[in-house]
Every structure is written in structure tokens, then in C-alpha cells.
Amino acid sequence: MTDLTERLSAIDAQIADAARTAGRDAGEITRIVVTKFHPASLVRDLHALGVHDVGENRQQELTAKRDELEQAGQSPLAGLRWHFIGQAQTNKAAAIRRSADAVHSVDRIKLADALHRASEPDNGDALDVLVQVNLTADEGRGGAEPAEAGRLAEHILTLPSLRLRGVMGVAPLGEHPAPAFERLRGIADSIRSVQPDATWISAGMTGDFAEAIAAGATHLRIGSAITGPRPDRG
């Protein structure tokens, strides 16, 4: 685990530097380690190093890893939170809800409704959700259009089994990320004017988390810079 420890420490040091430059407290920033394509054993290793937030892009992988690490008769890894950060199909909503502690990629009313319908009557816990905003000019990309984000947020607030936490966005490829993250921050501010508790801004990955921190990001999604190269799936 030496290499993993070193990579984790290096990223945390960079996050601290970026926060200091932005005049922010690094302690208010959550680092989510994206473990896409890596085995469940890596999640266990990360947890042993003090990681409490991991992210997955695919429902099947999220479910399989969480099930493997929480087999009957074993205690769950204390304090570990699972974030679903990929594009979600409505027919996978129930499976996502069973395995995720937070869903960052709610981009349409139909998906919000599906996640709400999947709530279990005996479980009073609300699911943390974020409105994903499309920060590109491509309408085919994931995320609600910026002009629709507020309406989606207001709809989520009508669903008692969902807890609106904030917004999520991915910077456009081939463009400087700072302007896109500033647009996301503006949308976040607008949503907070309606729901003050919606304070999360999920933005920033390995190549652009410094710009995301400068724009107020509270949650960063960082993968191979911590986990190392993804295993060959061929």
C-alpha cells in the first residue's frame, strides 16, 4: 500500500495548497476517491488509510463492491459513504438507491421521481441528491440545462424521500475550466436562495480541482491520480 499512501498524500497536499491559495479551509472540502474498475479490496485499503468517501460511475459496479464489502455477518466499513457519480437510467434507480448514500447525477425530473419511488417505507432516511448541470454547449451531454436546473431543484424539494444537497458539474473538454465552474457556482447560489441547506458543489477532477476549489467546490471527484492506472478490462 506504499504507492497508494504516497499518491493519496500527494493529492491531499495539492488540495491543501489550492485551498490556501483560494483563501479557503481545506477541512471544508470532501475528497471523493473514484474507484471505477478497481476491485473492492482497493476500497478496503483506502478506508484503512482514512478515506471515508468513494465514488462509482456504474450501478452494477457500485452494487457489487458494496455487497462484497458488506457481506452477511461482516460489519460495514465504519463511516464509509458511497457516492454515485455516473449517468443514471431510471430503470436502475432502485438498485442505485439501495447502494448509494449520495447521488450526484440527478439531471431530470423523471430520474428524481424514480429515485423517490424506490424509497423503502420502513427506512426513514432521505437520500442525498445533487442536481447535475450541463456546463457544455452540447445538449446531448449529461446534466440539466442551466436554465432548467432551478426547476429541477424545486421539484426535488417536493419529494420527501430525497434531500437536495446542491449541484454537480463537469468542466467542458478543451476549454479552461474556471469559467464553467463559475457558472456552476452561480447556479448553486441561486438554488441556495431557495434551499439554504443545499451547500454542496461537486466539481473538479484530477486535472482541474484547483480551479474548482477556487470557484467554491465542496466535493472533488478524483480517480487514477490516487488509485493508480485502472486495471485492464480487455
Provide a brief overview of the structure.
The chain has 234 residues and is an alpha/beta fold. Helices cover 41% and strands 17% of the residues.
Structural summary, described in words:
Helix 6 (146-156) packs parallel to helix 7. The longest helix is centred in the N-terminal third of the chain and has 20 residues, at 2-21. By secondary structure, this protein is α/β, with parallel strands linked by helices. It has helices spanning 2-21, 40-48, 59-69, 93-99, 109-117, 146-156, 177-194, 209-214, 224-227, and strands at residues 30-34, 53-56, 81-84, 102-106, 127-133, 162-169, 200-202, 219-222. The chain has one domain: Alanine racemase (TIM Barrel). An eight-stranded parallel sheet has the order 7-6-5-4-3-2-1-8. It is built from nine helices and eight strands. The radius of gyration is 17 Å and the shape is globular. The model has no long low-confidence stretch (mean pLDDT 94). Strand 5 (127-133), helix 6 and strand 6 (162-169) form a beta-alpha-beta unit.
